[in-house]
Specification:
heterodimer; A: mainly alpha; B: alpha+beta; eight-stranded antiparallel beta sheet; five-stranded antiparallel beta sheet; flat
Chain lengths: 260, 388
């Protein structure tokens, strides 16, 4: 994992496509290795999901050239901080079929939406840029989030007898999907432009981060207990503060520019 | 037309979505919000908005296919969830070995069972009710630490392990007792998660708490140091407990006696075992009525009886065999069972007793699955639609 992170970091520094490709392929290979080692898809814990999100980001670095460096950096960061365990699965998770289609769909959406948030930061910093890649990432990410959440509901109905019960994970999946739907609808119907879409991507990215990371480490209640882990609250609060300041700065700047 | 445009319009949709998201976020810490009138109204608003947003685009064109499929799917899902919530069953059925049971309980809905010699009725635990012209208003319901517990019996002691560590209060005043057979089981709540122990061992006289290394913690209590509280939710026993004026904790049925004095004033007495506590005295009064009051999760009568036959552990995977109407069903923590239209899942496991989650959806999940399919296809089609 550290080797992949090193390659990804090197790719970000030198901005070379072969390095991005190598780190992506190696991360795919590492996941395949974990599948063989564990006998199941490596998506049962927070750490394992971080591995997957990292792979998605490293893949996105090949697709979205403007943000390749950022994607590669975040991918490397996730690989470095990811703790992995070889513990057996809890009984309710021992369904490889659902583990694959629900969790992989969801973590793929997390990767795309976090990538969109990163790209949004970059687009706000650059004055003239196309927002098309952002819209595409958001659209695909939201689609997979909605589909993955529904698949999770089907799994829940087969495991616990109910499709939806406002479990914290379910609630925040709903909240995150809602934020993305608001942004995409407003953009598609011309109520906001690229700038507004970028702000939505960042705000909703914070929501997705809470859904993925915050619930498993800060709230730690609900039926998704198998993902619970210990992690510093301060890091997450710091991230939220940064996002708030970032968005406030650019919103203020835009408002002042309009007045002039 | 204006109303259809307004209620089916984008702005209404955006306001609804953001409001629902905000309330849902608050619900993470205050789950009661999810069953509040406000939240249900927002969800009803969703239904209206999604329906009218589709209707106002009539006559439909080819480019509306993805949008219509998605919206139709969402309507089906909301309808299916409404049917399940209103007419379906989602309850917990406790089973003791070889004892048939047909009454399940909804742990999220507390009711007061009020029985006299002739009648039995249920009222919501948080709603006022009337008995013989007297109005009763609910006081505080002390929330119980909601953790799943696994219990092992060992003749003289019961060892309780939680899923994750069981936290506890340093101040025993916050301890809430339950009853299970002849043991007092104390469920504990914590405000120091980092100090939480891993197991709580109950004997007939004392409670011992151990840390994750199995070492006894300093917080071991003798059971005669009882805290003060009143009308507490039970856990495994679904019982009612009350602290008597001397500090003793009483478990078991509580009787409410109402007496009428000649001038019509009502006197109220609460009877717990052999002790009687006067809630309101009037002099001199004649007995009018007696009610047995029990706080419990809302009961659900099932159309069949379930009997637990045997349990065993396969590695770390609990299994149980149950029978329903001569049909034998094998359940495990990883695999549920089906009887007719009912789904059964193993939710609690012990050598001599289990709890099952019993689920029944009158629409048979068909509406739900069709809705999900429509949403899935619709969303994928929409991905290819250009910006309007």
């Amino acid at each position: 994992m550290l080797m992949i992170a090193f390659l990804a970091l090197l790719g970000a520094l030198l901005h070379k496509k072969p390095l991005y490709l190598a780190s992506f392929l190696l991360s795919v290979g590492f996941i395949i290795y974990r599948v063989i080692l564990l006998g199941r898809p490596p998506v049962a814990t927070l750490g394992e999901s971080a591995l997957f999100v990292s792979m998605i980001l490293l893949g996105l670095a090949l697709y979205v050239k403007e943000a390749a460096r950022l994607f590669s950096l975040l991918g490397a960061f996730l690989l470095v901080i990811t703790p992995l365990s070889n513990d057996p699965l809890q009984p309710v998770l021992r369904s490889p079929w659902w583990l694959i289609i629900h969790v992989i769909t969801i973590v793929t959406s997390y990767g795309l939406l976090l990538g969109a948030s990163l790209l949004a930061h970059l687009l706000l910093l650059k004055k003239s840029a196309s927002f098309k890649p952002l819209e595409r990432l958001l659209s695909w990410g939201t689609a997979l989030l909605i589909i993955g959440t529904m698949l999770g509901g089907i799994w829940a109905s087969q495991s616990w007898g109910r499709f939806w019960d406002w479990d914290p994970k379910e609630s925040w999946a709903f909240i995150s999907a809602s934020l993305y739907l608001v942004g995409l609808h407003a953009y598609r119907f011309g109520k906001i432009g690229g700038f507004g879409l970028a702000l939505f991507a960042i705000t909703a990215g914070a929501s997705i981060t809470f859904t993925w990371y915050g619930l498993n480490t800060i709230v730690t209640k609900g039926l998704h207990s198998y993902g619970f882990a210990e992690a510093p609250l301060e890091a997450f609060l710091g991230f939220l503060l940064f996002e708030l300041l970032f968005c406030s700065f650019f919103l203020t700047k835009k408002l002042f520019a309009k007045k002039e | 037309m204006f109303i259809i445009d307004a209620l089916g319009g984008l702005w209404f949709a955006l306001i609804l979505i953001l409001s629902a998201a905000f309330v849902a976020a608050l619900g993470t810490w205050w789950p009661d919000l999810y069953s509040s009138f406000l939240f249900k109204s927002l969800l009803a608003g969703f239904f209206v908005n999604i329906l009218l947003a589709a209707v106002r685009r009539y006559p439909f064109k080819k480019r509306h296919v993805g949008f219509l499929l998605t919206h139709a799917g969402l309507l089906l899902i909301i309808t299916a969830l409404f049917i399940k919530a209103t007419w379906g069953v989602q309850a917990t059925l406790p089973l003791d070995r070889d004892k048939p049971a047909h009454i399940a309980y909804c742990p999220e809905e507390l009711v007061l069972e009020i029985k006299d010699k002739k009648t039995c009725r249920y009222v919501k635990a948080n709603a006022p009710f009337t008995l013989d012209g007297l109005e009763f208003y609910p006081g505080a319901l002390i929330p119980h630490a909601k953790v799943q517990l696994q219990l092992w019996h060992d003749n003289s002691k019961v060892t309780v392990l939680g899923v994750g560590s069981i936290p506890f209060f340093e101040n025993i005043r916050d301890v809430e007792p339950l009853k299970k057979g002849s043991w007092q089981i104390l469920a504990l709540d914590c405000d120091r998660p980092e100090g939480a122990p891993n197991s709580v061992i109950f004997t007939k006289k004392s409670i011992f708490v151990t840390d994750s290394q199995g070492q006894l913690c300093e917080h071991s209590y003798a059971l005669d140091q009882a805290p003060l509280f009143a009308f507490d939710e039970g856990f495994a026993g679904y019982g009612t407990s009350l602290v008597l004026p001397g500090g003793e904790i009483f478990f078991g049925p509580l009787y409410l006696h109402i007496e009428a004095s000649p001038d019509g004033e009502r006197a109220l007495f609460l009877q717990a075992g052999t002790q009687t506590i006067a809630l309101h005295e009037a002099a001199p009064a004649q007995p009018l009525a007696s009610y047995l009051i029990k706080l419990m999760p809302r009961p659900v009568v099932l159309p069949f009886a379930v009997t637990l036959k045997t349990t065993w552990l396969e590695g770390d995977l609990p299994h149980a065999i149950i029978t329903i109407d001569k049909e034998t069903i094998d359940l495990s923590a990883a695999q549920g069972g089906v009887f007719g239209d009912y789904q059964l899942f193993l939710s609690f496991f012990d050598k001599e007793q289990i709890s099952l989650v019993v689920a029944h959806d009158p629409s048979g999940y068909k509406l739900l699955y069709v809705g999900i399919f429509f949403v899935g296809i619709g969303v994928l089609i929409l991905l290819g639609v250009r910006r309007c």
